[in-house]
Design a protein that fits this description.
Keywords: Methyltransferase, Transferase
Distance between the termini: 74 Å
Number of strands: 7
CATH superfamily of the largest domain: SPOUT methyltransferase, trefoil knot domain
Oligomer: single chain
Shape: globular
Pfam family, one: SpoU_methylase
Number of helices: 5
InterPro entries: Alpha/beta_knot_MTases, rRNA_Methyltransferase, SpoU_MeTrfase, tRNA_m1G_MTases_N
CATH architecture of the largest domain: 3-Layer(aba) Sandwich
Structural class: alpha/beta
Largest sheet: 7 strands, parallel
Radius of gyration: 20 Å
Protein name: tRNA/rRNA methyltransferase SpoU type domain-containing protein
Strand content: 5-15%
Helix content: 25-40%
Order of helices and strands: EHEEHEEEHEHH
CATH class of the largest domain: Alpha Beta
GO molecular function, one term: RNA methyltransferase activity
Length: 215
């Protein structure tokens, strides 16, 4: 069983790795969870368009780094001495409650339905799983699983709890620069373009319907 990190030592950095995720709302929710649990960055692999539905603005508070291929990401992890921990129910996986973390850690999540592909499995240095206590479901939602593992990592790493608001049941949220004073990220530009495309499609559908009614 791994012990918590000593307060005298630098605290390990945590990263959330998103690869082969198919649903936009899961991506957005995991970015939100990564922000809540103090991850240093979200690593996105092989997803040219990144829609952050469900992130509730948290993408402003956490760096998102993108790689085109697994090989590029693997080289970056090795260069920066980051251990890849896969969240998958494989025979060699360790119970996440034992906190078997080893240092700077990238937490790798698999696809919602099929789990990790062979490249992802081969990239992981070790695995953790989340115990379940009934036979009512085969696995957890990917965002729920990611959140549980990140919470365990943050606890093991000894991250300081965020400040809570005194008059509301919320945590304090840091302000960030908005509008013309801040350069938009690639993800924000893509999200804006996607919203514009959907809006134009709806407008075109309305025009087509008006033509049908007139006929």
């Amino acid at each position: 069983m791994s012990e918590s990190v000593s307060e005298a030592k630098p605290k390990p950095d945590g990263y959330l790795v998103l690869a082969n995720i198919s649903k936009n709302h899961n991506i957005g929710n995991m970015v939100r969870s990564a922000c809540a649990f103090g991850m240093k960055e979200v690593i996105v692999i092989g997803q040219p368009k990144l829609m952050l539905y469900g992130s509730h603005g948290t993408a402003h508070h956490i760096k998102i780094r993108k790689f085109g291929t697994m090989e590029e990401a693997k080289a970056w992890f090795k260069e920066n001495n980051i251990i890849v921990c896969g969240v998958e129910i494989v025979p060699e996986a360790e119970d996440v409650r034992t906190h078997p973390f080893r240092g700077n850690t990238a937490i790798m999540m698999g696809n919602e339905g099929s789990g990790m592909n062979e490249k992802q499995l081969g990239m992981c240095d070790h695995f953790v799983y989340i115990p379940q206590f009934s036979q009512g479901t085969a696995s957890l939602n990917v965002n729920v699983a990611a959140s549980i593992v990140m919470h365990h990592f943050s606890t093991w790493a000894g991250y300081e709890e965020a400040e809570r608001e005194k008059d509301r049941a919320k945590f304090v949220v840091e302000s960030f620069v908005t509008g013309k004073d801040r350069e938009r990220t690639e993800e924000e530009i893509q999200l804006s373009q996607e919203r514009r495309r959907l809006r134009e499609e709806r407008e075109n559908e309305d025009i087509d319907m008006e033509g049908v009614l007139e006929d």
